[in-house]
Amino acid sequence: MGHTLILAEKPSQAKAYADALQHTKKQDGYIEVNDGRFFKEKAYITWGYGHLVELLSPEQYNETWKIWKLDQLPMFPGQFQLQVSKDKKKQFNIVKRLLNHSTEIIVATDCDREGENIARSIISLAGASHKPTKRLWINSLEVDEIQKGFRHLNNGKNYLSLYQEAQTRQYSDWLVGMNASRLYTLLLQKQGMKGVFSVGRVQTATLYLLYKRQKEIEDFVSQDYFTFQGKVQVPNGSFEAKHKQRFATKEEAQKVLQEKGVLPGVNDGIIQEVKKERKRTKSPKLHSLSSLQSTANKQWEYSPSEVLKIAQSLYEKKVLSYPRTDSHFITDSEFAYIKNNLSNYQECIGVDVEVVYPDAQKRYVDNTKVAEHYALVPTKQTPNFSALNEKEKNIYLEVIATTLAMFAPDYGYEETKVEVGVKGINFEATGKVEKQIGWKSLFKNQQQARKKETVLPAMEKDQACQVNVEIAEGKTKPPKYYTEGQLINVMKHAGKEIDDEALQHTLKESEGIGTEATRASIIETLKHQLYIGIRKNLVTVLDKGKILCQAVEGTLLASPEMTAKWETYLKKIGENEGSQELFLDKIKQMIESLMQEAPKKIGSMEQSLQQVNEKSFIGKCPRCNHEDGKIQDKGKFYGCSRYREGCTFTLPKKFLGKSISQINIKKLLGGEKTNLIKGFTSKKGKMFDASLRYDQTEQKITFEFPKG
Ligand SMILES: [Zn+2]
């Protein structure tokens, strides 16, 4: 007798499925299910650990590709092949046996491209691709959602194009990663650079975006400007008003005042215009993963990957809908359960919402705008708060607040615009007074970056006033470094920086680079490679990143626009409208042209490479004493440049709770003792002061205590 096989992505997911089914029995590597409500025959749930299988590495296709050599490039395998990952053989064999004895397979991995790829790669390597498949497609791990999903399984064939898309991504990432990383590493090493320069299709374009911004900041020349401002006195009070025009020099500004007969100091003026307007703001759109990531970064400085992890954990706790979503909309059916559960959510958040929009509004609820997943919303189930950590609570409450906000009153304020004239010179002022806090009351726990209220005194058009005019000086300001949260948005729009929330949503998702599910991990990769660093929540490009950016400048790797176009094409493959072969050909063409361009480009970089080399040289390695053994800044510690040759020498940047300055590190490496460093904390918690010295024979840091 055959059986139905349910293939989950990981053990926790398999367990959630089993929790929704009857008569289950845990076995080694799988769960047995006898639930006649859903399956006519016996069923088994089994799982991967994410990927159980992987693409072969270069030397497995061709032995001569084992050693990194320029004349072995490009490496284009005739046909990509899969193998079982080393440490996952046992589980793979269990899955394989169950797959091969099954009559039907239910693909029940995560409901996205990568999930499809994980399942289909396993099925393919197990030799079970010919078996009929169904797809479980759900948006939350709640029991009733899972049951509903098993009752309404989709035809597995409908998802094959998603698999094609994910596979194309995987192949092209292999081609770019393997070839370009070797190409750039070898060329840069020829110029005396150390280490590996990893290059990736999306990763390098993202790095280049950051580099471009950093150059704008570094090259920015601030300019002085001059303008007029005036303190306006009316019978009911006073306020500041500003002139719009800017002048390059003070003399120019003075001349204009003179021509109009305005004296610095008090002048007679007139209120030319008073315009009052009631304005309202709708509540923010429901969260997609990226908007949640940027909000949480702004609010609590969580990194995007941290936010994804927290959202995933809440999803697994069954209180949050599927996290890897790019949609800001829900359908009527989510709206219905959310409305039913309003009082539970309100209790959670501890705020009573005045429901003024009891019906679904198109801004949030639109069946036509939900394709794969709907926006991030709470499930029907509310969590036991004591079982959530602080970060989970913050994220959960943020999602609840945005969800409840669609029922709440608009935020309302009164805006007053005033125009004051002094002998033909105009001054303007804007006042803003909050009239109705509305949905903003739901975010009361957050420090809203609310603009301060500016209350203008009562006045009327044509009223006379006195204006104390002066010339004010200002400086033009450089653009700002991106935060990690902004970076998510910048990637989403391929470098078009859009601060206006409303405008962000009008751009199509597909114009960006990376996917909703991958952006956070791309940022993590860049950090891990020491291409970028985060300081005070701002992203800066480190020396290693700058070198790579200079090297790829002008190529397609450095073009976010091109990367975005590729992304659009990949999505087309997912919609059955594109061809994998065509895409991979394009990628191969790009690699071939890189091989032409890169040597010329890197050859011309000699000077800047030398500078970086000198800057990164801190001292000679005291352990291997080799002439190439140079101590370099490795981010969290200092290490020998010959670590690939086996020298494991490192020095910590922090020692017993104290940061060691680079000056002191240089002294240590030169065999000297450091300056007296105050405030070490011993393992027993005692504070003390000492100098450090590196002991050559013992090969360790020793203390020297001040005498007396
Ligand atoms: Zn060394």
Automatic annotation (TrEMBL):
InterPro entries: Topo_IA, Topo_IA_2, Topo_IA_AS, Topo_IA_cen, Topo_IA_cen_sub1, Topo_IA_cen_sub2, Topo_IA_cen_sub3, Topo_IA_core_domain. SUPFAM superfamilies: Prokaryotic type I DNA topoisomerase. One of its GO terms (biological process) is DNA topological change. One of its GO terms (molecular function) is DNA binding. Residues 159-595 form the Topo IA-type catalytic domain. Keywords: DNA-binding, Isomerase, Magnesium, Metal-binding, Topoisomerase. The keyword Iron does not apply. One of its GO terms (cellular component) is cytoplasmic replication fork. SMART domains: TOP1Ac (SM00437), TOP1Bc (SM00436), TOPRIM (SM00493). The keyword Ubl conjugation does not apply. It is an enzyme of class 5 (isomerase). This is DNA topoisomerase. It comes from Virgibacillus phasianinus. The lineage of its organism: Bacteria, Bacillati, Bacillota, Bacilli, Bacillales.
